[in-house]
């Protein structure tokens, strides 16, 4: 009796139910609560949530609203960890600008189109067919947010077949992350380009040996920005040996230092020296330059190389000229320059200048599935998720990450369908419009 009414209530909500040929009500429920991972009906996650509450009185592990999710993570995390992730530089104007840029654009949906429940979100990125153009942003020091850190995040991205980017500031090494990420899954490696070519070669070789197939070179963080929240605490995770694992494990670093800080007989002083050595060699205070890119190409071969941290049309054009395979339009989440332009505001002009000549990724301020839709409609080939995943991680490691990722995928797929699209090819520029109040301002100033 009760089950009947539950099913009646939900068939209207999700057509997935109709496509399940269940022999019994229990099978039907099982199919909704535990859909095959190979079926990318991301939007059925909402049914799973409603069913869990109706049948088992369980609500999700973390809020589905981003602001509440962040507030909940703040409650869980030690203050220095929360501030390290939430904070930006200076007055955090760039952090705000990243979010405000999304308000400049609004979705203009289409209706009465033949949109099927099986929306196709897949796209080929760097020669891999991805189930969705969504990538984990490189984020270091993840054990700050949960002891499982990178193991948890890489595991969940692997489960979904979505690329996981390992940071040079990771708190878990190449091999361990590859193992938790899973065989055959797309793995990318983000380089903070060392000042010492021997170290660079060693990091890149270890990355390739562990199946990392795209090289992301972050070019906006060769020195650390003025991070006011951390400065006021004197908090710098690397001094406490968080986020230096790649340096600690590297054989060339051992040679250069004359000891292995991970050896059982290593002294406390050696451990600290090795940690500092990694920070100094990777955030050296000297900017990388275009003219040296050939050194990376020589080591990485013809596998993709991508520059992360591009915000101007001129640099995007230079990236084409210097033979890069891609760029990621990003300002490091507002963590490097205060008072800078919102990342999404720079995207349309960059897309216009270089679309089709290289792959264009985007990050900065993505909080919802609708945000993903906007960035793709404005021409990004793929987007990266940053802070939302960290707030998920704070909620019991992989469980919270899984919940946040599934929620974003579900909302993204629903937004695509409800906007009248069946596939990503249909998510085009004409489905977003400049918010009216800004249109008026532009008219006044032009
Ligand atoms: C805690 C934290 C650590 C980060 N570490 C790195 C890093 O190691 N390498 C890197 O290229 N970007 C790093 N980033 C920047 C992200 O890759 C991404 O550009 C940024 O988080 C996007 O902004 P959003 O999270 O507000 O959407 C970090 C960001 C945060 C919040
Ligand atoms: C998904 O996986 C299940 C179980 O492994 C299998 O029975 C089903 O055919 C697969 N579906 C598709 C579309 O590959
Ligand atoms: C539903 O509950 C089960 C345990 O009863 C849990 O494993 C699963 O993650 C829950 N799903 C959602 C969407 O909350
Ligand atoms: C989904 O889209 C991808 C990329 O455009 C395409 O290669 C694939 O054939 C499509 N799949 C289906 C089932 O239409
Ligand atoms: C792309 O992938 C195909 C099949 O996986 C492979 O044969 C080909 O060499 C790849 N091309 C490049 C440029 O990596
Ligand atoms: C630790 O052991 C190694 C190998 O036995 C040795 O070379 C090294 O000097 C030792 N380190 C210290 C600090 O004693």
UniProtKB/TrEMBL annotation:
Q: So which cofactors does this thing need?
A: FMN
* Residues in the signal sequence: 1-22
The cross-references to InterPro entries, in alphabetical order and at most eight, read: Aldolase_TIM, Alpha-hydoxy_acid_DH_FMN, FMN-dep_DH, FMN_HAD, FMN_hydac_DH_AS
| Residues where glyoxylate binds | 84, 167, 192, 227, 332, 335
Q: Which residues form the FMN hydroxy acid dehydrogenase domain?
A: 58-437
Q: What is this protein called?
A: FMN-dependent alpha-hydroxy acid dehydrogenase
Name the source's superkingdom.
Answer: Eukaryota
Belongs to which family?
Belongs to the FMN-dependent alpha-hydroxy acid dehydrogenase family.
> Could you name the active-site residues?
332 (proton acceptor)
Q: Which PANTHER family match?
A: FMN-DEPENDENT ALPHA-HYDROXY ACID DEHYDROGENASE PB1A11.03, S -2-HYDROXY-ACID OXIDASE-RELATED
């Amino acid at each position: 009796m009760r089950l009947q009414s539950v099913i009646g209530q939900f068939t209207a909500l999700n057509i997935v139910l109709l496509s399940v040929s269940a022999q019994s009500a229990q099978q039907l429920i099982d199919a909704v609560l535990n859909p095959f991972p190979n079926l990318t009906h991301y939007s059925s996650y909402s049914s799973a949530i409603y069913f869990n509450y109706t049948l088992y009185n369980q609500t999700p592990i973390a809020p589905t609203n981003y602001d509440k999710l962040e507030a909940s993570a703040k409650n869980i995390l030690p203050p220095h960890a929360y501030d390290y992730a939430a904070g930006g530089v200076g007055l955090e104007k760039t952090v705000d600008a990243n979010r405000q840029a999304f308000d400049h654009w609004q979705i203009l949906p289409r209706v009465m189109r033949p949109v099927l429940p099986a929306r196709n979100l897949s796209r080929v990125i760097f020669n891999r067919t991805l189930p969705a153009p969504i990538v984990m942003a490189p984020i270091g020091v993840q054990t700050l947010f949960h002891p499982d850190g990178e193991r948890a995040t890489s595991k969940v991205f692997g489960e979904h077949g979505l690329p996981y980017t390992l940071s040079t500031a990771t708190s878990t090494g190449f091999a361990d992350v590859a193992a938790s990420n899973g065989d055959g899954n797309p793995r990318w490696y983000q380089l903070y380009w060392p000042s010492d070519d021997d170290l660079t070669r060693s990091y890149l070789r270890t990355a390739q040996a562990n199946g990392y197939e795209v090289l992301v070179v972050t070019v906006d963080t060769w020195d650390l920005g003025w991070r006011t929240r951390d400065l006021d605490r004197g908090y710098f995770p690397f001094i406490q040996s968080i986020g230096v694992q790649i340096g600690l494990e590297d054989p060339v670093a051992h040679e250069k230092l004359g000891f292995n800080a991970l050896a059982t007989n290593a002294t406390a002083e050696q451990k600290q020296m090795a940690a500092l050595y990694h920070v100094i060699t990777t955030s050296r205070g000297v900017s990388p330059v275009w003219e040296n890119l050939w050194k990376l190409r020589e080591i990485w071969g013809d596998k993709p190389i991508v520059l992360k941290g591009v915000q101007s049309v001129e640099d995007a054009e230079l990236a084409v000229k210097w033979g890069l395979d891609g760029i990621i339009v990003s300002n490091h989440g507002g963590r490097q320059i205060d008072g800078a332009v919102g990342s999404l505001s720079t995207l349309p002009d960059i897309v216009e200048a270089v679309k089709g000549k290289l792959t264009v990724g985007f990050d900065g301020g993505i909080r919802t599935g609708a945000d993903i839709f906007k960035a793709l409609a404005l021409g990004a080939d793929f987007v990266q998720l940053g802070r939302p995943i960290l707030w998920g991680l704070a909620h019991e490691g992989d469980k919270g990450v899984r919940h946040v990722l599934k929620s974003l995928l579900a909302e993204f797929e629903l937004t695509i369908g409800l906007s009248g699209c069946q596939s990503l090819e249909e998510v085009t520029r004409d489905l977003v419009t400049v918010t009216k109040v800004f249109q008026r301002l532009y008219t006044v100033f032009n």
